[in-house]
Amino acid sequence: MSLFDFVRDIGNALFHSDEEAAGKIKAYIEADNPGIDNLEVLYQKGFVTLRGTSRSWDAVEKAILMAGNVKGVGKAISEIQVVDAPTPPPAELQSAGGGAATPVDYYVIQQGDTLSALARRFYGDGGQYMKLFDANREVIKHPDSIFVGQKIRIPQP
Asked: Domain 1-100 - what CATH class?
């Protein structure tokens, strides 16, 4: 599953109809805005398109994860323009701007997962769970509150 693909029928239930989806998703992203200016959100049949500008590829990545972890979203597409970014885009976003990959992977939460168990799996130390939490603060509000099907970033050591 790539950065842009999500489990459509799970996640944060923000909207009840397609007509209100774009506005609700936009408000959700703007509430914890990871660094997107002039954000526009389009929603059609489970597909979200994000537009705006940013100075950070991390912000784009986080906005995609925020939109994608909403119930009813199966795919999130970024048309966000990144200007004056000090770092190159992640591998998943290279088609949107070129450059070398940054060390990050994506993981879909499975039944029984905890951030501590994931830190042990990916870093060899369960005590590093805060590294995972910090990388995903926009989509994880508390270290003990993750859900099956949620997609998160796994920064590489």
From this structure: alpha beta
d(CA 41, CA 33): 13
**CATH fold for the domain made of 103-157:** Membrane-bound Lytic Murein Transglycosylase D; Chain A (3.10.350)
SS3 134: helix
Spell out, as residue ranges, where the chain has pLDDT lower than 70.
Answer: 1-2, 88, 90-102
Residue 14: name the closest of 76, 59, 50, 67 by CA: 67
Among 30, 84, 85, smallest CA distance to 57 is for 85
The rounded distance, in Å, linking the Cα atoms of 56 and 4 is: 18
Cβ neighbours of 126 (radius 10 Å): 14
**Residues in contact with 112: Cβ distance below 8 Å, sequence separation at least 6, in sequence order:** none
